[in-house]
Design a protein that fits this description.
9 helices; Phage tail protein beta-alpha-beta fold; 3-stranded mixed sheet; 4-stranded antiparallel sheet; 16% strand; 11 strands
Length: 289
């Protein structure tokens, strides 16, 4: 067997180290793409309990999908066909294309998505929603499947969800709590996608359902409406738990002293001597020793 010289062994050792480092770098970059999403993302860090009403998807399966969608992602091109982009992110989160619905509004699987490369690192979900908005398309999650479809198609297959809004409803008795819950429903219908609710001409529905000591909202709406609703009720609960700081006093910009009435204190009544000036001929008051 032919022996190898020392320089040859050194060269091979250097090459082996380079290959190993290259593998480590690739693994590190891959881990960076699949790292856990930050916990401060609203749909990951929820406060108000809610559950999907789905015969083929549990709450745990749904949360797993949310975490996949919230992984950090950086677009590699400003324009890319939809089907090619879906294939490129399959390792992060598998997606399906509702080709039939897209063809109904003149789109195809090779319609280009547009991304901005100058944006800071953001979750995959954010980039996708921004790219779908000009196309009048939305993202739907149902039966454990994430699907890209049209707004019109999403309105006729609404995912259902239960929300436990008991912590948001105050009242000393059941009647007052029901009235507070109905007011909350009214607020939701007028601030979250108002045109989508049935009472305003849309197809989404929200109903109040008492359950023993709890008050539940039964909601049928598009997935993106559910995300907004979850973020809204979560923020309401956080606002109730926080102590709001007192507003600072308004600074006095003039050189005149601030009167007690200006700062909310009752003004003292002037003395009788100040209201009735003394005459020049009046005798001085007797001062006992």
């Amino acid at each position: 067997m032919q022996s190898l010289s020392t320089p040859t062994l050194r060269i091979r050792a250097v090459l082996a180290i380079a290959v190993a480092l290259g593998g480590i770098t690739d693994a590190t970059s891959q881990d960076a793409q699949t790292q856990s999403p930050p916990s401060e993302i609203p749909i990951i860090n929820t406060v108000i309990e809610s559950w999907p009403v789905d015969a083929a998807m549990t709450r745990q399966q749904e949360q797993a999908i949310w975490k996949k969608l919230c992984q950090p992602y950086t677009p590699l091109a400003t324009r890319i066909p939809l089907d090619r982009w879906v294939d490129s992110v399959a390792s992060l989160c598998p997606l399906q294309i509702d080709r039939y619905s897209l063809e109904g509004i003149g789109l195809t699987a090779d319609t280009e998505l547009q991304f901005r490369l100058d944006r800071p690192p953001q979750p995959l979900l954010v980039h996708l929603l921004l790219a779908l908005k000009p196309l009048e398309c939305v993202l739907e999650i149902e039966h454990g499947v994430v699907q890209i479809t049209t707004r019109d198609a999403a309105e006729y297959d609404l995912p259902m969800r239960l929300y436990d809004v008991s912590p948001l409803v105050d009242g000393s008795n059941a009647q007052e709590r029901l009235a507070a819950a109905k007011l909350l429903i009214h607020t939701i219908q007028y601030v979250i996608d108002p045109e989508d609710w049935e009472v305003l001409g849309g197809t989404s529905v929200i109903q109040l359902q008492p359950a023993k000591s709890k008050l539940l909202f039964c909601v049928a709406a598009k997935t993106q409406t559910h995300w907004k609703l979850q973020a809204f009720v979560d923020q309401l609960q956080r606002a109730r738990d926080e102590t709001l700081p007192l507003e600072p006093a308004i600074p006095n910009r003039s050189n005149r002293p601030v009167s007690p009435a200006a700062v909310g204190e009752p003004e003292r009544a002037p003395e009788q001597a100040e209201r009735t000036p003394r005459s020049k001929t009046a005798l001085p008051r007797f001062q006992p020793r």
